[in-house]
Write a structure and sequence with these properties.
With 424 residues, this protein is an alpha+beta fold. The chain is 23% helix and 35% strand.
Amino acid sequence: MKKRLALILALTLIATASFGCGKDESKDTAVQKNENQNKEEEADASEKTIEPSVPEYAITSVGADGYEYFEGSVECLQITDDRHEALAKAIDELFSGRVSNFNSRIEDQNKEAESFNKENEKNAQEEGYDYEPIKYQESQYVTVIRADEEVLSFTVTSSYYFGGAHGSEVYEGFTFDANTGEQLTMADYGDEKKMALVAKDFILTSIEESSDTAKEMLFDDDVTSYKTVIEDYFSGETLPENYLDHTGVTFVFQQYDIAPYAAGISKFTVPYSYFENFNTAYIPKDGFYTMELSEQGLISKIDVNGDGTFENVYIINEYPEDSEADYVLNVGDADITRTLGEGNYASGTFVHAKDGNYIIVNSNGKIVLFEVSNGIRELGSLETDKIIREIKNGEIILADFTYTDEGIKWGENEIHKYSKSGIE
């Protein structure tokens, strides 16, 4: 028998008090005892009240084994502390359902892949060339965006390959109230219709203010226009995928929504202050966070110096025909250009750290640190054959990784410290 993917989620155990019944008492005495008992229970409950705290979590991964023509894995988020019982239950239910749906598709996908390979192998034999069988693939990866006293938000990226020139991705956003376990929607933050209009105008304006190079990557012709797609999303019943970030609400457009496959997934973060009467309960306190800059070079609105105003921030790759490729990093009125190198691609991450604001640029083995609280100042770089696994407050963690049946497997961490003094 072939093994099926199975996931045993942690069960939250809730301790309950039990009370024994004594001998019959008079009615008045019984009432008095109940009143006293209620007071005692209320006092106990008051003493046991848990102050809001940051949920602790773990990400586990399980794979589908024993299939000849299918491979895949699912990452699952689990709450590991005992202070967020409602949240733990909601997260368990969500991922239990995802795993169940994944399991229900495996047999059909394996059979479809078997049929696909037999047909292609037959064609190859008729044409006289060798054929290498392929496997259908489906993998789901979790990335935690916010985990604080108010909110747990995360994304799930599902990657698929069912033959053809390339695979595809679907990007989902989830936001939960950390204390009640309720999955949140735009209606929980304020007037949904007004916020949709604000978000639409913000996104269209951000695109319009972006460079021509960035805008050229978007659909804008007689067949498909990014403007029409965005208008339709924010005037219909279903908004784009979204989640609460550290600085605002992030909206996600999938592959082929507003740009070709090669441009990837498009994300726009609308700052909380742009919305009127946004529910302050879900606005995070100031603290460390990171924010990925647009892969297409579209602008992000970021308050880089803490004065309450938002600057246009972007990184864009340029490949002119008659000169060397480079990337341009722009922060407000300042910009800086660096050589990219043949076949390379640069991506950027904004970092709000304890001692200032930075942008870390990663370009095929070279990591460059810029301080951007006041203009752009290059602080140093390092060469590496590893990738960035995580950026922490004052630390960049690098590691190798491989894909396994159970998902991504990381190698040993390599830690580099960064500050205004540079990168070590």
